[in-house]
Amino acid sequence: MKASSLFAVTIALLLALGAAFGAKAMGLFNTSTPPKEQQPVIRILVARANLYEGISITPDQVYVRELRSEEMDFFPKNREKFLPPTPDAAALRTPTRNIESDQPVLKTDLLDLAFPDGVALRTAPGMRAINVAVPKEQSAGGLIAKGDYVDVLLTCRVADSENPGRSSTLSAFVARNLRVIVKRNTLWTVLRGNPDNQLVSYTLEANPYRAALLEFASTKGTFTLMTTSAPRKEGIAPLGAEIGRTSTPSYSIPDSVEYKDEDLRVDQLLKGELSITEGDLDRIFRLKAIVRRPAPRPIVIQQISGNRPAGHAVFSADGDYLGGSAPARKAPEGSSTGPESLGSSQPYGYSFSPPGAAK
Length: 359
Description:
Blueprint: H1 3-25, E1 43-47, E2 62-66, H2 74-77, H3 119-122, E3 128-135, E4 149-160, E5 163-183, E6 199-206, H4 208-217, E7 222-228, H5 262-270, H6 278-284, E8 299-305, E9 308-315, E10 321-323, E11 350-353
Antiparallel strand pairs: 1-2, 3-6, 4-5, 4-7, 4-11, 5-6, 8-9, 9-10
């Protein structure tokens, strides 16, 4: 081979090697697929359990999970409808429809964020709010809900105040058709069980007299709440929708022995002319006055000198001399010297206490 040919071959080899190194450096021989750009993880807030219309959500009823493939098309177009991915974002929000478990909780499924109406706004005109706490066994298993109507049964140990050994246990309704406006002392409606051996609190709507009577009776016995249908009459518990805010409600029921004078009781109570006493419980339990043997009256002998009074001599029924002046006469027990009033009657001499109270 000629020297010129060898030189040409050498140059060609050197150029080929240079081209190969250059191609390798440029990655032309790399056949592996480059990694795809990693997509960010999208997290959303979903229901942990079924959520129900009108029942406020608690943080333990929702949780955060990753967006699923079947939800990829919906999310970008509706991003503003999703709540922030934290359970606290749904706390005490109220659904406007039922939401199934594991489904996203959207803002459009919830009422606008607002504080619920207070007790004053839930109470009809002229009515009062009274709180009672009863065991769940004495309130339909604790299943009475806000908006339900209840009758309040009072159970007492009724005894002769001068002879406590003579007693019996009686029950009677102290208020009828009261609307439940708050439960468990919270303005939100939440879904949770009632623990055993704990009292359940209910705030009831009652007219002023019945509210005062319930407060008085709460220390005299035990309450039992019995559910009832909504009243058809305005007399006992008028609904705010049935009477206007400017109208005056009537609480009397003419054909009811217990409620025929209700308007008068309310009026006297609001004017400070009526006090709640054991006499009100006497009426509710239909008790009769205890007949007690009156103490013998002293014998008064008037002394006269000529045609003028000369004094008095007072002797007991047994003939003992008691003095020289007559005792002041007392008004008969139960009589009233003031204007006629529903609250002027005196109690009949009974004492009232819870059934389990010590005798």
